[in-house]
Structure prediction request, 104 residues.
Amino acid sequence: MAFIVTDENYRDVLNGNIPVVVDFWAEWCAPCRMVSPIMDELAAEYEGRVVIGKADVDDNNDIVEAFGIRNIPTILFFKGGELVDKQVGAAQKNVFVEKINRLL
Prediction:
C-alpha cells in the first residue's frame, strides 16, 4: 500500500535517502481512481527501494501549492529531494515503471 503523504510529513519524505514518487489525487477524480491501484502495486513491488506515496489534494493545500498542482492525477518523481520527472493524467503501469526505473 502506498504511503500517505501530508502537509506535515512531505518535507521529511522527500529528504529521505531513496527516490520518492507522489501521486496527487482526490476521491472524486475518476482518473485518479484508475491510477490508485497501480500505485499500490508499485509500492509493494518497489518496497525498500522507492517510496510510493499518495497526497489527497483536498486535504493537503500546502504541498499542492508548493508543487503547483493544477490537474489530477499528477504524479511527481523525486531523486535526492529534487523533482526530476512528472506525469500529468492517468497512464498505464508500464509508463510509471519506466519512470521509476530511471530513478534507481
